[in-house]
Design goal:
alpha/beta, two-stranded antiparallel sheet, TIM Barrel, 8-stranded parallel β-barrel
Length: 244
């Protein structure tokens, strides 16, 4: 069972995640204009030295900018999580651009694996997002899929134009269908916590599990703090996954 955690931006926290038993440890680059982050590059080195896989999410899709990021950081995985749908329909222009980008990464960096987030709506709203069609279209240029929650019905996504960090469960029935359909490994994400991950894994039977919001530290008001993990929550999440 692969365990993945994102928004790890500093070497000390990267080492802690490896110590906790996390397999894929990822960081995020927010802007193509401020993409050289020395501490994040140091984190990639720490992850590599620990024998884990490093992953980088660039929150932009300009090919040359993405190639610069991969060349400088040398991650094990580059992860794309931009939304590729228009409500219940596939955004064909966006999907075509995504496939070309992923093919370009493969040609230039054949040693780097590609992870693609496939959006899934919240429970009972699965038909509002073309999850399975997106999976079929993107499988050929991807090495991994990650499920994650896309809010529907006019709700704003936390990061505009991208999928994830909602803290909300995705529709597990659709996630299970994606796992069964796909010929590449699928990691389950979307609102997973130490308390619910075992149930989600048993139901969907994926290759791994990913957590972000539910394993963050909380501020004085009880709200998750981005880019700061609670080691105890991470350890309990790992234990819940490994117990299966």
């Amino acid at each position: 069972m692969i365990i993945q955690i994102y928004e790890i931006q500093e070497p000390k926290e990267a080492a802690l995640m490896a110590e906790c038993g996390v397999d894929h440890i990822g960081g995020v680059i927010l802007s193509p204009n401020e993409w050289m982050i020395p501490v994040l590059k140091d984190s990639v080195s720490v992850i590599r030295e620990s024998g884990r896989k490093s992953s980088i999410i660039p929150l932009f899709a300009d090919p040359e900018a993405v190639y610069r990021v991969i060349d400088w950081y040398q991650p094990s995985i580059v992860h794309f999580c931009d939304s590729l749908n228009r409500e219940a329909s596939v955004d064909e222009v966006a999907v075509s651009a995504a496939i070309l980008l992923q093919q370009g990464v493969k040609e230039r960096f054949p040693h780097v694996e590609i992870m693609r987030t496939i959006p899934i709506a919240e429970p009972r709203f699965g038909s509002h997002v073309p999850t399975l069609e997106l999976g079929r279209l993107l499988e050929g240029s991807s090495d991994w899929f990650l499920t994650d929650t896309l809010l529907v019905g006019g709700a704003a996504q936390p990061v505009s134009g991208h999928v994830g960090i909602t803290g909300k469960l995705c529709d597990w029935e659709i996630a299970r269908d994606l796992v069964n359909q796909s010929h590449i490994p699928v990691i389950l994400a979307g609102g997973l916590s130490p308390e619910n991950v075992a149930e989600g894994l048993r139901f969907t039977q994926p290759t791994g599990a990913d957590t972000c919001t539910a394993t963050n530290l909380l501020d004085d008001s009880g709200r998750p703090i981005r880019f700061r993990k609670d080691p105890e929550k991470v350890r309990r999440f790992v234990e819940s996954c490994r117990a299966l």
